[in-house]
Amino acid sequence: xxxxxxxxxxxxxxxxxxxxxxxxxxxxxxxxxxxxxxxxxxxxxxxxxxxxxxxxxxxxxxxxxxxxxxxxxxxxxxxxxxxxxxxxxxxxxxxxxxxxxxxxxxxxxxxxxxxxxxxxxxxxxxxxxxxxxxxxxxxxxxxxxxxxxxxxxxxxxxxxxxxxxxxxxxxxxxxxxxxxxxxxxxxxxxxxxxxxxxxxxxxxxxxxxxxxxxxxxxxxxxxxxxxxxxxxxxxxxxxxxxxxxxxxxxxxxxxxxxxxxxxxxxxxxxxxxxxxxxxxxxxxxxxxxxxxxxxxxxxxxxxxxxxxxxxxxxxxxxxxxxxxxxxxxxxxxxxxxxxxxxxxxxxxxxxxxxxxxxxxxxxxxxxxxxxxxxxxxxxxxxxxxxxxxxxxxxxxxxxxxxxxxxxxxxxxxxxxxxxxxx
Length: 422
Hints:
single chain, five-stranded antiparallel beta sheet, 11 helices, disordered N terminus, five-stranded mixed beta sheet, elongated, 422 residues, Beta-Lactamase, alpha+beta
């Protein structure tokens, strides 16, 4: 042994290391045995000196099972509470939430989504393409996300609802990392926001046009006043008979142009409405009655539907009805038909809006011109000034509303004015 240590020192070091490891193991085992013995003594004291090892084991197992069951019940309660909270959050969302699986089937659509899509049936299990068939832009957005597996963030879509224009804000995200994980779509109604933005743009555009019109009309009126004044200096008796009709023609035309310029200035003047509750239905009936002698013979004006009270300027609103009735009657007369005009009221309390539509049986407005008819100086009639419907739009915007043009059931024009409910 001594020779081994002398001749091979590494062997000696290994033997010393092994001895140390054995000593440590012996110490650990001794400590464990002492702990087990102490635990056994504690258990025997709690169960009595006559307790057997089987009873000790049974008690330990029973305690473990009880603890596991308690933890399981707590975890189940937490899971149920979490699931209930998630369901309440989804149910309470004002935005629509649509979930589609990898096969394109709808797995969830919350109440807000059903309301925004005007759905009444149960959509779960239905193919998303069939469900969104009436809203092609939204359907295409979901299809794009499923195909590309890329999110679509805050996209604005035009999606008609119940035959009326609507705007949706849409975000679609893929579910899962695999290619068949489905998609989740969050969409909200932006119609009110878009309409407010359009009203603001209209107000700004009308203000700019008003400033331009005021400047031009002022210059025209000065020139017309000069021409009209000189024509007055030409006494008819001092002129040869052949020239008298020309002088009278100059006077008549300058008078006509003067009235047109005055109309331009009235349009350019900023409106300061005196707001008070106005019953639109009663005002429509009164306006049609007051204009019955101005409209062509045989003109029929019917007032029907549901009307609401709005905060408005009665004088301006009466002017609006007058312009609409005259415009409709003149269009019908130019087409050679007896005017049949309908003033139809509608109240949409869900949107917080009411509308008045004046429709006729005239030639109608071409689709390409329906946005332009409200622009100042745009007219489709030879003798028109192009300010009748522009004034209507200005009055509507002054009341935080908007005028839109469409087609009537009789094939004529339909001008709809929308107002916010008080």
